[in-house]
Amino acid sequence: MNATKALTSLALLTIPTVGFMARGDSVSFKPEEGTTVEKTLSIESSFYMDDLSIVFDGGEVSPDMMGGSMDEALIVNVTLGVTDEYLSSRTGAIGSLLRTYDEMAFEAGGESSAETQDAFNTMEGLTVKFVWDAEGEDFVKSFHESEGEDEWLENLDPDMDLLQLLPSDEVSVGDSWEARGEGLLTVFSPGGMLASGSEQETNPEAEELVELAKEQMGSQLESMLEEFAIKCTYTGTQTEGDKELGAIEIEFSGDAEIDLSELILSAIELNAERMGGVEADLSAVVSLELEGTGLLLWDMKAGHIHSFSMKYEIIAGMDLEGDVDAMGENHTFEVAVEVSGEVDMSLETGGDEEDEGDDE
User: Fold this and answer.
1) CB 3.0–4.6 Å: which of 38, 200, 225, 265 could bond 351 by disulfide?
2) pTM to 2 decimal places
3) For the CA atoms of 264, 269, 273, 277, what is the dihedral angle to 10 degrees?
């Protein structure tokens, strides 16, 4: 009897313990099919030339003579408003999505002379369908009930939910993890890159140079992203109206180098004949430093982004040196440039409704 009582007492202690074992929060992508969400992305950035040094044939050249002076900041501001309809999802990722581009604005120039660039309104009013192709391990992109140029689709990405920042499993307050890989590009450019709709004709040399840039820079970019990491920390939930929002704080700091030597030499070779024959030997290296923080708020019930904000600083330097033989003359040059910038990004969501079909 004593043994039986002991086992019974142990069971009574254990059963409630199992029921009340602490479980983590699920910060995961799980929108209902047919859910429609309005998203507005705003990116405000300003860049300053901190230093410019030019040496030509052994003599220093004033930056003013080369148009290099920069009395005020260069600003680049982007606003993108879209309506996303989640058609389907796969584990932790988008399966298929319709995105309508409602509003687009691109402003660039000096602080006192920035102008809106209408050429970047190309996609306004159009809808793009993204469908995951498991075999090709990529998204198939096409215009949906609208028309546009195929090249406008090339650099678009369906992810505007910052999925790369989400944890791979349930988390508790204080848990941290690292986000790495190619998907980090969407953190700095949610939705991918929009193409300019300029109708200006491009020459074959320019088109070939673009392809060379993709080829030569691709491997360097992949290597950079493999080494770069964003630290994510779950800080719990907060309430906004009737929504429970999971908060993920991010921070990052890193540096990298990009070698542009081959790309610049390729550009010279492509234009050598038009320039009367040019031979060059040069080295061009760009260094980058990034440091920033941000906050992702996740709609725990709806299973998609609620908002995102991020601020970061960037320092970019380029060292270019070499010698050029052109039109029977030989010249040497050394150029050192340092530019610093600040970027303020925000992504807000509006409507969040499930497709009600013909019920209305």
Assistant:
1) 38
2) 0.83
3) 80
Give ∠ CA 177-179-181 in degrees, rounded to 5.
150
pLDDT tens digits for range 161-188: 999 999 999 999 999 999 998 889 899 9
Structural domains in the chain?
Answer: 24-192+204-353 (2.30.230)
Quick one: average pLDDT of 33-52?
95
Task: Give the separation between CA 156 and CA 143, rounded to whole angstroms.
Answer: 12
Both structure tokens of 101: 């581009």
- Following DSSP, what letter does each residue of 125-159 receive, concatenated? T-EEEEEEETTTTEEEEEESSS---GGGTTTB-S-
Q: How far is residue 25 from each of residues 28, 102, 168, measured CA to CA in Å?
A: 9, 34, 12
Measured in whole angstroms, how far is the alpha carbon of residue 242 from the centre of its chain? 30
Q: Return the higher-pLDDT residue of 92 and 100.
A: 100
On whether the CB atoms of residues 249 and 293 are closer than 8 A, the answer is yes
Give the three-state DSSP class for 273: coil
Using DSSP's 3-state secondary structure scheme, residue 19 falls into: helix
Query: How many CB atoms are located within 10 Å of the residue 317 CB?
Result: 17
Taken as a whole, the chain contains a residue count of: 360
pLDDT tier at 279, thresholds 50, 70, 90? confident
Do residues 157 and 182 touch, judged by C-beta distance below 8 A? no
Buried b (16+ CB within 10 A) or exposed e, 213-250: eeeebeeeeeebbeebbbebebeebeeeeeebbbbbeb
Amino acid at 95: G
Look at residue 12 and tell me whether its pLDDT is greater than 60: no
Amino acid, res. 331:
H
- Say which DSSP state 106 is in: E
